[in-house]
Amino acid sequence: MKDIFTIFVEGIADKVFFRQYLHHLFGITVPDNRIQKLDGWINLKGLTWQQRMRTNTANGGTNIVIIDADADIEARQADILSWKQQHELEFVLFLLPNNQDAGALEDLLENIINPNNRPIMDCWENYEKELVKLDIPGRTPPPLTTPAKKTKIYGYLEALLGESKTQKNLIKEANRNYKNTQHWNLDAEYLKPLKDFLEQNLTERIQEDEK
Fold first, then answer.
1. Residue 1 pLDDT class (50, 70, 90 cuts)
2. What is the pTM of this model?
3. Neighbours of 47 (CB within 10 A)
4. Helix (H) or strand (E) holding 62
5. Which of 127, 136, 196, 202 has its CA 20 to 30 A from that of 33?
6. Distance (Å, rounded) from C-alpha 17 to C-alpha 142?
7. Virtual torsion, Cα 34, 39, 44, 48, nearest 10 deg
8. Shortest CA distance to 113 belongs to which of 52, 39, 185?
């Protein structure tokens, strides 16, 4: 595959997910260097990645930035697009989980679990509701801290996978199998905004490469 596109993502969890999702959508195995891990969205603004984008653009490639919206999607979008204009860069932007709502990769993942496993998430949500009600003597300040979303996804897989070391290893972000239909649904309706975005920006490029 030629250097027809580069996708910039935040971390290893994103990289693993998108390599598998692109294979699911297009039937292609994306070379490792086609999906670049930023180790945090703010690092996108570093000179290294600016130069990578300019080089890719000069070579006729497409730059795709897929990062978390976090708490305020409008603020994140305005920030990134202002930076893009200031530095005269060329890229398209998608904010996880769905380019519409606040959130992150973990919100997307929660929405594409196999529906049969929904009771696991229901149990977790009940746990969170009860946790904030607890008053632990001597703790300042209350309430107790709700576990991070990453912990929720970890807990979901831990409940489904076995107790062996090999099975436990599959819980880690770098080793997850999103093609396991017992755990995930890569055809979930929730993925439609992302699917449409990727098809719009990659279909033609991939077809060019296959000629």
1. very low
2. 0.94
3. 8
4. strand 62-68
5. 196
6. 36
7. -70
8. 185
pLDDT of residue 203: 86
Could you identify the residue written with the tokens 């086609």? 34
Question: Of 49, 45, 39, nearest to 82 (Cα)?
Answer: 45
| Of 67, 180, 64, 174, nearest in space to 117 by CA | 180
Q: CB count, 10 Å around CB of 66?
A: 23
- What single DSSP character describes residue 109? H
Q: Is the pLDDT of residue 189 over 90?
A: yes
Residue 201 CA to residue 193 CA, distance in Å, equals 12
CB within 8 Å of 27: residues ≥ 6 apart: none
If DSSP codes are grouped into helix, strand and coil, which group holds residue 85? Answer: helix
Tokens of 102: 């606040």
The structural domains of the chain, ordered by start, are 5-103+190-210 (3.40.50), 113-175 (no CATH)
pLDDT digits (tens, 9 = 90+) for 107-158: 999 999 999 999 999 999 999 999 988 888 887 777 888 999 999 999 999 9
CA dihedral 76, 13, 30, 113 (to 10 degrees): -100
pLDDT tier at 190 (50, 70, 90 boundaries)? very high
Length of the chain: 211
